[in-house]
Design goal:
Layout (H helix, E strand, L loop, with lengths): L7 E4 L5 H12 L3 E6 L2 H4 L8 E5 L5 H9 L6 E4 L14 H29 L2 E6 L13 H21 L4 E6 L4 E2 L1 H8 L4 H10 L7 E2 H12 L20 E2 L3
Parallel strand pairs: 1-2, 1-4, 2-3, 4-5, 5-6, 7-8
Antiparallel strand pairs: 6-9
Subcellular location: Cytoplasm
Keywords: Cytoplasm, Lipid metabolism, NAD, Oxidoreductase
Family: Belongs to the short-chain dehydrogenases/reductases (SDR) family.
């Protein structure tokens, strides 16, 4: 018996990083997983894993999100992972950067929640997990202006949904990791003028001496997706990085 036996889970950004690790972890625990991403080639790497089906979806497009929702009679867990990290202060952030980040990091979650929440309400049972970050309303981080702003909005969205629908059987939590070692992070490091120094700078901020892994975040998401969390989380005490923590209804 898996911890997620019989549960139907839909998640975004499943082609790599946290989304990929979570999709695999969900499936190993017995869930039926629909793994979506805009990167069809990377998404194919999940094909053949028992319990996972894949679909190319751009979660910033309302028509594609609504079509995805129509393919599911019901969904037990919605995990919103899709996101983009912009590097820079407010002076480095052009309007296009702001719009792209907010569209990817916040509007996509709005679209997904709005499309799937009615299915959960019809069953009076559902579970939404949103990917936020320590870089948000929790902590100011250098050169993460619009990213931190978007993740603060995710925390606000999560608390709002939790407050509005907890009495109707809906749980809504967000996960707030520190620096996670993912292909996205490695790519951003390599894009810097001095990748070796950029890596050292990242590591210098890790009080535990290492970065969090995508698998560690996925373990927490398995717990949040399970019935072990019966009414949602209030506030889990903050742990030093790299351990992720969650925020739920206040």
């Amino acid at each position: 018996m898996g911890r997620l036996d019989g549960k139907v889970i839909v998640l975004s950004a499943a082609a790599q990083g946290i989304g990929r690790a979570a999709a695999i972890a969900f499936a190993k625990e017995g869930a039926q997983v629909t793994a979506t991403d805009i990167n069809g080639e990377k998404l194919k790497e999940l094909e053949g894993i028992q319990g996972i089906k894949t679909k190319v979806v751009d979660v910033t497009k309302r028509d594609q999100v609504e079509a995805l929702a129509k393919e599911h009679d019901h969904v037990d867990v919605l995990f919103n992972v899709a996101g983009f990290v912009h590097h820079g202060s407010i002076l480095d952030c052009e309007e296009a950067d702001w719009d792209f980040t907010m569209n990817t990091n916040v509007r996509s979650m709005y679209l997904m929640c709005k499309a799937f929440l009615p299915k959960m309400l019809a069953k009076k049972s559902g579970n939404i997990i949103n990917m936020a970050s320590v870089a948000s309303s929790i902590k100011g981080v250098v050169n993460r202006c619009v990213y931190s702003t978007s993740k603060a909005a995710v925390i606000g969205l999560t608390k709002s949904i939790a407050a509005d629908f907890i009495e109707q059987g809906i749980r809504c939590n967000c996960v707030c990791p520190g620096t996670v070692d993912t292909p996205s992070l490695r790519g951003r490091i390599q894009a810097q003028p001095n990748p070796e120094q950029a890596y050292k700078d990242f590591m210098a901020r890790q009080k535990t001496g290492r970065m969090c892994t995508a698998e560690e975040v996925a373990y927490l998401c398995v717990y949040l997706a399970s019935d072990e969390v019966s009414v949602g989380i209030k506030h889990v005490p903050f742990f030093p990085l790299p351990h992720p923590f969650t925020l739920g209804p206040t």
